[in-house]
# Entry
Amino acid sequence: MEEAFKMLHSIFRVWKRYYDVFRKNLVYGVVTTFVEPLLYLFAFGYGLGSLIPTLDYMGVTLEYRAFIFAGIVGQTALFIAFFEGAYGGFIRMYYQRVFQAIAVTPVTLTEVLWAEILWDATRATFGIFAVLLIGSIVGDFSISGAIAYLPIAFLSSMLFASLGVFVASKAKTIEEIGYPQYLFIFPMFLFCGVFFPIERLPETVGFVVKLLPLTGVAVTARSFLLKTPVDWLSVSASIVWLVVFVPLSISSMKKRLVK
Amino acid sequence: MEKALNVRHLVKEYKMPKGPAFRAVNDISFEINQGECFGLLGPNGAGKSTTMHCVTGFYPANSGSIEIMGRDVSQDPKSARQQLGVCHQEETLDNDFSLIQQLESYAGYFGFAKEKALSRGWELLERFELKDRAHQLSEHLSGGMRRKFQVLRAMLTEPKLVILDEPSTGLDPEARRTLWNEINLFKSNGGAILLSTHYMDEAQRLCDRVAIISKGKIMDCRSPQELIAHYIGLDPIEEEIRPGYKLTRPPNLEDVYLKVTGQRLGGSV
# Structure
């Protein structure tokens, strides 16, 4: 019990280091966090939404703006958590050597990497909070659903943060992060149900897409925020990604650093 | 009195992509007493930094044991590292923060109260002549100042053992003097130091004992004076420092090093 408390305390100390950096650039962090979802809301919601007033999604008729804005919740988790984990993690590991500096104090490397993932997830959850707030204000989301969704938002963000840290652990140079970014992250953003229901895809492609992590995250967000049915296959797939990649990313980064 | 550091039969091998593992540290043993400065001298790739990484617990040893103030580094790393301060060979400063903020943050990893960390931090910043830079980001400092600050940070939490991996690289003579004074003060207060350096005068001036390490093995370990007397003798040496210009000087650790390893520091003869 005492060991667990010590571990949590160490993780919190490192998490606070990240928070302090964020707090130093608070205005920038808040402005960019709120501007991005507002742009999506206007471009896709009011712009594209005026051309496609409603659509059918898993047997439910939804306003397109609400549909896409709930999808943006998943996209926000994906982009903020992945980029923090991948680019931020690589910079802290390779250029700043923050991990190496902290891991020779009483804080262990495992704790440092847990703090990295938890901070990346915290940062992404803050971004999701901005989307939820705007979506609730314009009346697209149920407020109770948005509040209930926050813990799920954090877990979803942990999934993408761990993918980012895993990529950082494998990249030889910062440019190499571009490969998974363009070959995995952006295709997910386009095809995993953020902009259109994946039922519109050919059956085989749709099945593969259901197994990708963003699909389950978007499905879960819509079920909480818009009361739509749950596709358990895609949700289960996302849970598997989370359970596998959090420990995998930590062990991969340890393997990279510890010789 | 408890040993500040006790290394027994340390072996560290690196897995190679092809072929057998490379043995970087090959069954070395040494201990450091409290209030003692122990130097590791050797060429690049001799195993000095690997030994230091093992002592911090960052690299796991293949075999052997390492204890800091009686705490086993692999079994009880948190407790062992509570007694440890580290100045890496590479820069590991946290450039997102000012100097004083970095000290506060670093001390937090040791569970130091904020007030205590700040009080000790200001004291050290003054002694290391960095007080007027306290609110600057470390990236705005000169290379020598950053190096001094990294040593300062290692001493912040009043550790029993400090690892200094080439601490004076890039320092001007005045800054080196400041650093040497601080190292001597730390020693006189009972602190132990594991020092790696390529500067022989630094080792000779600071170290109570020196281990000459080559190809992962300790070749010899004694006080600098004993090493010089044993391998070279005490008679002055005549050396041609450039064509046609000879100089007579006292024997030093570099002479010992050359004799013991057949190498110059930094490369083969």
Notes: The interface with chain A takes residues 14, 53, 56-60, 77-79, 81-82, 84, 86, 88, 90-97, 101, 105-106, 108-111 of chain B (CB under 8 Å). Confidence is low (pLDDT under 50) at residues 265-269 of chain B.
